[in-house]
């Protein structure tokens, strides 16, 4: 088990690109689309560069997290979490938590009212995520209600509602076959 104090979280650098793409392939195996999403987000204006983070343990990149800007029909800009990946060998060792807590600390001082994500229903509530539908936050496509989650930030108000519009780098993920 890794001591959480040995996890170093920092912004991704260009020298990390190969490692983070390989991490996405390993963490989301057998789906190679996440590595493609990582590449597309990096090239996009929607990426929140301060929240393109890696987790290192002993100079090895073992986790990666990205946030991008999404819009909602009420006109607000939201922070969209995707992807969050950890190398399989390092899962369940506080890597994802270290990345999440670092990002949420930054976001609490930002103008973003809300974080949204599609994620494992048993994982994200530990950070304060709740079902998004009861808040009036709707996905742009059909999702099981339990995976569509939101985290209210200090800038949140009940005026933030409607359908979320993902940024363009996500379009290829939601094309009907």
From TrEMBL:
GO terms for molecular function: acyltransferase activity, transferring groups other than amino-acyl groups. InterPro entries: Acyl_CoA_acyltransferase, GNAT_dom. It comes from the Bacteria. Signal peptide: none annotated. Residues 7-154 form the N-acetyltransferase domain. This is N-acetyltransferase. It comes from Spirosoma validum.
């Amino acid at each position: 088990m890794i001591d959480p104090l040995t996890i170093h979280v920092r912004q991704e650098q260009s020298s990390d690109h190969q490692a983070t793409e390989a991490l996405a392939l390993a963490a989301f195996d057998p789906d190679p689309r996440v590595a493609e999403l990582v590449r597309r987000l990096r090239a996009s204006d929607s990426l929140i560069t301060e929240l393109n983070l890696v987790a290192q343990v002993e100079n090895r990149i073992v986790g990666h997290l990205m946030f991008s800007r999404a819009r909602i029909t009420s006109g607000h800009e939201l922070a969209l979490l995707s992807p969050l990946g950890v190398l399989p060998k390092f899962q369940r060792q506080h890597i994802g938590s270290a990345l999440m807590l670092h990002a949420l600390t930054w976001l609490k001082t930002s103008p973003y009212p809300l974080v949204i994500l599609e994620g494992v229903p048993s994982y994200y509530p530990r950070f304060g995520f709740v079902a998004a539908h009861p808040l009036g936050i709707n996905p742009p496509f059909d999702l099981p209600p339990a995976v569509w989650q939101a985290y209210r930030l200090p800038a949140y108000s009940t005026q933030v509602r409607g359908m979320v519009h993902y940024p363009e780098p996500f379009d290829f993920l939601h094309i009907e076959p």
